[in-house]
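Help needed: design a sequence for this.
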């Protein structure tokens, strides 16, 4: 071990967060959730259990859903991080956000950002999910307010909206 290993507590990182390049010196123990919330002011990422169980802190790192409370900011050096704030474009909600609104898939909304980010990753790889697959995909996201029925309905609706959006983006009718 080098002589300064025990005293070096900060490291420089370069990440892209929601399309914006960020260079920052951070404490080596700072989590991604605390980094985006406290250093960057992106408070849509919520902290619930801080043990990786509830999923409220889920963000995308290089397109993959990760628990922001378990991932250190220094581990993300050179990556792209996306938070829930990246979903809406201008004044237009992301199809999943609109589906959650229309299907009453949220109550207090505390868990919703983590659920949405989990679904963005899951639906990218499985655009036509079965209800049982959605339940499995969301099994790591806890919600204390709802009975999950509307969350699953919103996820199914959101998946359909994403397929329609992709079809219209491609100019292909299916």
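Sure. Designed sequence:
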């Amino acid at each position: 071990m080098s002589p300064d290993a025990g005293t070096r507590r900060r490291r420089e990182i370069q990440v892209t967060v929601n399309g914006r390049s960020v260079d920052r010196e951070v404490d080596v123990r700072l989590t991604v959730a605390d980094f985006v919330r406290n250093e960057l002011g992106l408070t849509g990422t919520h902290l619930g259990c801080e043990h990786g169980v509830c999923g409220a802190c889920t963000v995308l790192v290089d397109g993959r859903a990760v628990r922001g409370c378990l991932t250190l900011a220094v581990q993300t050096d050179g990556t792209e991080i996306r938070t829930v704030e990246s979903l809406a474009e201008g004044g237009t909600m992301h199809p999943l956000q609109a589906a959650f609104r229309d299907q009453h898939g949220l109550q207090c909304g505390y868990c919703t950002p983590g659920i949405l980010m989990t679904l963005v990753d899951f639906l990218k790889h499985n655009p036509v999910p079965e209800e049982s697959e959605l339940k499995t995909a969301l099994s790591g996201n806890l919600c204390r307010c709802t009975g999950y029925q509307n969350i699953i309905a919103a996820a199914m609706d959101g998946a359909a909206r994403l397929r329609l959006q992709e079809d219209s983006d491609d100019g292909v009718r299916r």
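The mean pLDDT is 93.
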